[in-house]
Amino acid sequence: MVTSRLKSHNHISISTVKEYKNNKQGQIITPQKNNQRKVSLFVENGCALPNEKEKAKQLYNAKSISAQIIILYEMMKLTDLEVRLRFHTAHHLEQYFSRLFDNIKILPFGSSINGFGRRRCDLDLVLIPNTEECNVTSRLVFHSKLMNNNDRQMNNNNETKEFLGILANSMQYFIPGILNVRRILEARVPIIKFCYNYTQTECDLSATNMTAIYMTELLNLYGEMDWRIRPLVITIRAWAKSQELTFDVPGQWITNFPLTLLVLFFLQQKKILPSLKILKLYSTHDDVRCAENGIDCTFLRDVNKLPLNYKYDINQDSLEKLLYDFFEYYSTFDFQTYGICIREGIQIRKPSRSALHITNPLETTLNVSKNVNFYELNRIISKTHDAIHALETTNKFESNNWGIMSLLKINNDNGDLKKSNTTKGQTKNIEEYLKNSYENSYEISDKFEVNETNIDETKTKKKETI
């Protein structure tokens, strides 16, 4: 089922995967021949994902908090194989739907593509028309009904809901490998939730949501600008989850997308990232994009074309200092008066009475944190104060959970374990990561040049709340 798309991988070599099966632990394994040893697909350098004890040991033995952040990022980020499997999931669905509808394609977007996703996170998919493959010379023409022009927006919303309802029925009854189909059609962006059994991936499918595609491009662009950005975002997301500021289901709390915008806005204040306004100012004719609802999604896609004063930042703070400064910045931020806007790169007067206002950088009329209430905002501020105290009082020679371990509530069970130097393997991995990061800080990876983007996060999903 997976051939050329999985030809090579930095950690595992798999020539052909004919079938995916679950082992007793719920991991995905490749089919075996003769007496070959079973190998989990979720491995790195031949080793399975670290459990909590192994994670605690690696973080405990790190030389510094900055080293802990890099180690955590390497443990949590999506591997190349997992990204490939997510593209395979999209291709699988596209093959089935192409038998029913002409000229469509399904693209992955969101955290799985923008570089901020963690292992085994949900996969966001969008179904869009594929106008590039129309064969004008063909004698066979696919006929379909046009959208009504009267009250187009209302008709478009209703037709999208009905269309997704038809797709959900087809997926539930006819497409193999798809389980637990749930229809969430009354949300602002209607979606279908389901589990893709072959890769054990939870998926969200929407339709014609091009704004999300362009948002993924923007977040991926920011992630590529500086080697410190993705490790910092992953660490702060992990901190928020461990402190129960974020949950896997929506509610009156902050989600990963606005939390990521908080980090990016903070880095703009540090002069590490340019504002979206600057990216739009230096955009070229090739960068012009417009979503289906008329939203301007034009911004510079090639950061190498930025002026030198924007391209090479003068801020060389360590990850440890950036983490501390992030908590300090938002512990004293005037959320009552000001809002967050990475489009302008400066704080703005709150245009609404919401507890927390974070402007959607592409759809500026939307507040992506509108759901957050005052109680949850106060909890965020309180947790930032707690984080500052934890970082100021940490002692790596006397504590079993020093540095970010205390922030993530990770404990070293072996109380008698003496702190050792970072292992040679960890040191080598960190040095290689820093070297590669500096070399590729402003080179956008080829695998993100497909139409991608964010946002199970920009989508305001309606799910069952806890």
TrEMBL record:
It comes from Atta colombica. The keyword Metal-binding applies. This is Poly(A) RNA polymerase, mitochondrial. Keywords: Magnesium, Metal-binding, Transferase. GO terms for molecular function: metal ion binding; poly(A) RNA polymerase activity. It holds the Pfam family MTPAP-like_central. Transmembrane segments: none annotated. The keyword Nucleotide-binding does not apply. CDD domains: NT_PAP_TUTase. Residues 65-223 form the Poly(A) RNA polymerase mitochondrial-like central palm domain. One of its GO terms (biological process) is RNA 3'-end processing. Its cofactor is Mg(2+); Mn(2+). Residues 319-356 form the PAP-associated domain. The lineage of its organism: Eukaryota, Metazoa, Ecdysozoa, Arthropoda, Hexapoda. It comes from the Eukaryota.
